[in-house]
Design a protein that fits this description.
alpha+beta, Thiol Ester Dehydrase, Chain A
């Protein structure tokens, strides 16, 4: 599989060709590259059908904060892995999360815009800044790091 070096817009079918995540853990629906290898905007459409809403929380469903951070990490991983020749031969593993803030609950019906910027890449370590918006209002942000590693094959 070739990289997507010349492509700017990605559907969920494209995302599945780059990220190793699968249902129910693929958390981004669409990606727009803003600056190749530097920043992107991803979207997530939140529906009541998400499996975690049964227990988080009944009668007051709230998108889990840890999944909000995971969503930013998946977008950051896509930013990097979409630029390698065989993206499914690599994984990106979280190594740090800093300055995470949640300013408003995310609920079913929300469309989340995830902005991720690659702040620094040195060897296999990537440092990112992520922000999530609903209706142009910030709902979460975090700085995070991830390492590029070879994917284990069977």
């Amino acid at each position: 599989m070739d990289s997507y070096k010349d492509q700017k817009s990605f559907s969920v079918q494209d995302i599945l060709k780059v990220l190793p995540h699968r249902y129910p853990f693929i958390l981004i629906d669409k990606v727009e590259i803003i600056e190749l290898g530097r920043n992107l905007v991803a979207t997530k459409n939140v529906t009541i059908n998400e499996p975690f809403f049964q227990g988080h929380f009944p009668n007051q469903p709230v998108f889990p904060g840890v999944l909000t951070i995971e969503m930013m990490a998946q977008a950051g991983s896509f930013l990097i892995l979409s630029q390698v020749e065989n993206p499914l031969s690599k994984n990106m593993f979280f190594s740090a999360v800093e300055k995470a803030r949640f300013t408003k609950p995310i609920t079913p019906g929300d469309k989340i815009e995830i902005n991720v910027i690659l702040e620094r890449k040195k060897l296999g370590l990537c440092k990112f800044k992520g922000e999530c918006f609903v209706d142009k209002k910030i709902v979460a942000k975090a700085n995070f790091s991830a390492n590029i590693v070879d994917r284990v094959t069977e």
